Predict the structure.
Amino acid sequence: ETSDEWIRTRTGISERRVLLHPEDHELDSEVPFESIKTLATDAASDALAMSGLSPEDIDLVIVATSSPDDMFGDATSVAANLGCKNAVAFDLTAACSGFLFGSVTAGQFLTNAGNSYQNAIVVGADALSRWIDWDDRNSCILFGDGAGAVVLTATEDASKAGILGSSAHSNGMGYKQLNCGYEGEARQVATPGDGTRLSKGSYSRLAMNGKEVYKFATREVPKVIQEALDAADMEVEQVDWLLLHQANIRIMETVAKRLGIPMENVITNLASYGNTSAGSIPLALNEAVRSGQVKEGDVIACAGFGAGLSWGAAIMKWGGSDE
């Protein structure tokens, strides 16, 4: 039996949020319409307000998602919703590593001497409730939907704030451990002769080998965080907070133990949201900043990991406020 206690003791998850079917809004106007675009826009709007910048100040918008509303991407729509008229916008797909990869990518734009980018918004947003098998209790108990965002600003003194060091990897040999593959339906179209059999696009349900993903994460994440620390010329003792992709509390406990970081220095909101894929890191960071847990000048060791397989880490010094 898949009880609340069974889920909590194995994953650390107590509750989650999921997007409703659009028809629920059509049938009842009091039910708000929500989608990846609306979640991403709301998260980015909140981050923009906290930054004190105007939409016109933003030069770059990256939306990290593996479950967009539009297969061609949602970032341009999010930028338009925000009023970021001067920004170039694009999606980045790297599953649960997406926000980490997106943040490092934005950092490259901001530090490249060959361009004039000053301010970027990075959003992590996913709705994997659309793609999981709700009859598979090994995966359907894990995932929730959500979005979070940060604003990154170029600074002349990188030691005061920003991404101090990073490292990233991928290994396609592990693809079969976590994927959501194409599964087209046959479609016959009229062409000269006997016609042509094409494929009508769709995707299968999310498939995950939980045991192998756990072994992969607990083996590789401590190493990639150490690589990021080396790139920043820092030691683990200088880290104030450990912020991991919110996949499973056991993964976080094991990674923290291997790094020698106590659990009281681990940022987590997994219990309230579940695994929101690319949304998990910025969601947790947002709550930690607004609650006053993370303060200006704090050093955060951040790591994402997931499908691909892909994984990466960044050492960040928080330069914002909680206002």
Remarks:
- The CA atoms of residues 105 and 261 lie 27 Å apart.
